[in-house]
Amino acid sequence: MKRFPSDDTILNYFRRFSQAEVERFWRPLWRWLIGRLSQLEKGFSLDLDSTIFSRHGTRQQGATKGYSPRRPGRLSHHPLLAVLAEANFVFHAWLRSGNTGAGQGAAQFLSEALSLLGAQHPIRCVRADSGFYADNFLSFLEERHLAYIVVARLTPYLKSRLYQLNEWQAHRCHLLGERVWLQTLELEKHPALCGGARRGPKQ
C-alpha cells in the first residue's frame, strides 16, 4: 500500500464511536453469528474461563496490579470468557481489572451470557475450574437447573474428610452423552465446602 494512516489517526477515528453506536453495530452482527451456529440436539457445553492480559504503560484504562504469574508486578486485565465448546465459539466476554478474582461476578456474567444466547441453543453442561468454586455461583447453577462440572478446591478441611473416609459409593451416570463410573462421596454441610453439601468425584 502506498498510503496508510498512522496509529493516532486510527485511534482518533474509533474514538468517534460512543457505546450506543457500538451496541447498534454489534447486536445485528451478533444475531447473525448466533444464527450460523449448528443446532445440537442435546445442547452445547459451556466453558467458563479467565485469562490474564499483561499491559504496558500507565494509561491503560482498568489495568491494575494483580495475579500475573508470567510478569509479576505488571499492570494487567483479567478477562472472563464464555465459550461454546463444540463450536469453538467465544460468545461472551467481560474485560475486568487485573486485581479481580477468577470467579468474581461469574453468576451475573453467566446470566447475561445465557440471555444473549437465547432459547434456540440450549446448554447441556457448564464447565469451570476451581477458580469458580464458590457457593453463590454453584447455587446460581442449581437454581437455573443447569448441569455443571466445577473443580472443587481441595481445602484442608476437604483433605481431612477424604483421609477419614473408609468407603466410597459407586454411582453409575451418563455424563455428556458418555457412560462413565464415578466414585462419589456425600459431605456434610460445612463453611469450608462453600456452605452446602455437594457430591464430588473421588480424588
Task: Walk me through this protein's architecture.
This protein folds into two domains: 127 residues, Alpha-Beta Complex (Transposase Inhibitor Protein From Tn5, Chain A, domain 1); 50 residues, no CATH class. The chain contains five helices and eleven strands, in the order H-H-E-E-E-E-E-E-H-E-H-E-H-E-E-E. The strands form three sheets. The chain has a five-stranded mixed β-sheet with strand order 6-5-1-7-8, covered by helices on one side. It is flat, with a radius of gyration of 21 Å. The C terminus is likely disordered.
Summed up, what is this model?
The protein has helices at residues 7-14, 19-35, 106-117, 135-143, 156-164; strands at 44-50, 53-54, 64-65, 75-77, 80-84, 89-94, 123-128, 148-150, 169-175, 178-186, 199-201. The protein has 203 residues and is of the alpha+beta class.
Tell me the layout of helices and strands.
Layout: H1 7-14, H2 19-35, E1 44-50, E2 53-54, E3 64-65, E4 75-77, E5 80-84, E6 89-94, H3 106-117, E7 123-128, H4 135-143, E8 148-150, H5 156-164, E9 169-175, E10 178-186, E11 199-201
Parallel strand pairs: 1-7, 7-8
Antiparallel strand pairs: 1-5, 2-4, 3-4, 5-6, 9-10, 10-11
